[in-house]
């Protein structure tokens, strides 16, 4: 049942659109304020530079999107996205060695970010309760320290200012959010903030995949080993719609990422295994290299503020942004939308925005700790976090995580449990339960793999034969 009330969502990207969708399930009217003019199709735009790099939507997030917008996965797959089963459809060199290809329990959707956004956005904006104010920039909040009553906006073209009033304002303006400044202007003290910056940089190039390879060849992932005291270097080859591969090379601080086309392949050759380079060498480039340095983990703690104004909620990257290598940002935003939906089903009087914020912030904790506890292991990582788990307790946690990771690549049961967590399907605390400890104790370990577990027909598809691993087949449980 809907009740009277108007909400404004600042930012019309992934988090903003999902938030608008759940708000429209409960309120009379929702306005999305977006600085960009949004494309009418799966195209790039200025406010989403990260869309030029690989994006995967883990099953934990994909299931929430499916609950909120049934049929989304089907539309994505029909448009050429691929559903990658973990670990059957992914060949990955983890920091601890090659992962066996176990029958999948979790999955990730792989396609271009513009397609993902377009399919979701198109459906959400079809809702007549939702109005899009595009080409419009939020410049400051209206109201005071006790209550936010709306937002001052400015036309991106003509600069005309306007006050939009609302019962609830949701900040989803992403990593560049000016929320801290907006709160200061309302007379509120600064929010607590943690930053863990491993200096992640991405360089991406799109290639035409050999015929049949986007559907018949696994996704490839070569990770860095954080235990080696050198800057980390990573590379992935992920299938995209339209018979393309998106190849992203990335590094931690000091890894000297390529920015010129001619340096892309030589850099790929410096990864821990040459498979990415071998695939790139045989494929036709369709784009130049696109490089970015936008990967720090950054988290605000509004739930700790002595005063939090009624009528204001923050979610998505504005609240907590993670090192993108772990692929959790969109699933975390989907989680936040679901939490908001649940909270909106309850009475929403004074103090309700704070209660909602507390739950939304709690939902960001798993991706936060997964990313940061690993990132602090990389050389030159700048740890500006007060989170005690990233200071005193980190070494013990890392030792345990290394043991789990070593077993997960060789045991189907341990791999399933870890992938359940990585896909944001079950909470991270599951890996600390007695159930998981006994599962580890009883785990049957398969032999270590010395080569990527690629099958002969897969190698033939991409014209590689040197790596054929005789007899590698899906490993039964
Ligand atoms: C290189 C890279 C790779 C990534 N890979 C993955 C991945 O594989 N999987 C995954 O789940 N996540 C990934 N992420 C994270 C993912 O991109 C973000 O988590 C996700 O986009 C967050 O959505 P958002 O809506 O919070 O913010 P954004 O998507 O950044 O959107 C913010 C929106 O707000 C608008 N805006 C900004 N300021 C204003 C203003 N003042 N007024 C009005 N509008 C404004 C912008 O134009 C934009 O549309 C990656 C991120 C990066 C940087």
From TrEMBL:
Protein's UniProt keywords contain Plastid: no
Keyword entries, A-Z: Oxidoreductase
InterPro entries, alphabetized: FAD/NAD-bd_sf (IPR036188)
Molecular-function annotations in GO: oxidoreductase activity
Enzyme Commission numbers on file: 1.-.-.-
Enzyme class per UniProt: oxidoreductase
The keyword Oxidoreductase belongs to this UniProt entry's keyword annotation: yes
Name used for this protein in its record: NAD(P)/FAD-dependent oxidoreductase
């Amino acid at each position: 049942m809907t009740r009277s009330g108007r909400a404004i969502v600042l930012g019309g990207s992934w988090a903003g659109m999902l938030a608008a969708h759940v708000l429209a399930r409960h309120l009379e009217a929702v306005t999305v304020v977006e600085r960009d003019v949004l494309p009418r199709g799966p195209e790039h735009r200025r406010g989403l530079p990260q869309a030029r790099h690989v994006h995967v939507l883990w099953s934990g997030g994909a299931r929430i999107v499916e609950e909120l917008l049934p049929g989304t996965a089907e539309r994505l797959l029909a448009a050429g996205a691929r559903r990658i089963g973990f670990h059957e459809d992914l060949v990955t060199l983890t920091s601890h060695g090659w992962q066996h290809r176990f029958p999948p329990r979790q999955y990730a959707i792989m396609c271009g970010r513009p397609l993902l956004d377009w399919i979701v956005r198109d459906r959400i904006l079809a809702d007549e309760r939702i109005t899009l104010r595009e080409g419009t920039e939020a410049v400051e909040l209206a109201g005071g320290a006790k209550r936010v009553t709306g937002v001052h906006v400015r036309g991106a073209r003509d600069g005309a200012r306007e006050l939009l009033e609302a019962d609830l304002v949701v900040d989803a303006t992403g990593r560049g959010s000016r929320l801290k400044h907006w709160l200061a202007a309302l007379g509120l003290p600064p929010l607590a903030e943690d930053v863990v910056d491993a200096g992640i940089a991405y360089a991406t190039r799109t290639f035409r995949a050999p015929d049949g390879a986007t559907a018949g060849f696994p996704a490839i992932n070569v990770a860095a080993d954080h235990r080696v005291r050198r800057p980390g270097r990573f590379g992935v080859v992920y299938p995209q719609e339209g018979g393309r591969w998106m190849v992203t090379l990335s590094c931690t601080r000091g890894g000297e990422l390529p920015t010129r086309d001619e340096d892309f392949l030589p850099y790929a050759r410096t990864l821990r295994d040459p498979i990415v380079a071998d695939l790139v060498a045989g494929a036709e480039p369709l784009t130049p290299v696109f490089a970015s340095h936008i990967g720090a983990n950054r988290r605000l703690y509004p739930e700790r503020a002595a005063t939090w104004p009624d009528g204001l909620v923050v979610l998505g990257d504005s609240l907590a942004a993670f090192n993108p290598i772990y692929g959790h940002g969109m699933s975390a935003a989907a989680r936040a939308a679901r939490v908001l939906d649940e909270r909106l089903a309850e009475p929403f009087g004074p103090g309700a925005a704070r209660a909602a914020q507390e739950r939304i912030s709690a939902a960001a904790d798993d991706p936060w700790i997964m990313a940061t506890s690993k990132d602090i292991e990389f050389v030159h990582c700048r740890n500006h976090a007060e989170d005690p788990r990233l200071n005193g307790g980190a070494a013990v946690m890392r030792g345990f995580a290394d043991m789990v990771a070593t077993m997960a690549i060789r045991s189907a049961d341990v791999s399933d449990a870890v992938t359940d967590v990585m896909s944001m399907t079950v909470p991270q605390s599951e890996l600390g339960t007695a159930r998981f400890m006994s599962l580890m104790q009883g785990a049957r370990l398969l032999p270590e793999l010395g080569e990527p577990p690629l099958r002969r027909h897969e190698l033939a598809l991409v014209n590689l034969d040197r790596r054929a691993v005789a007899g590698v087949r899906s490993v039964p449980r």
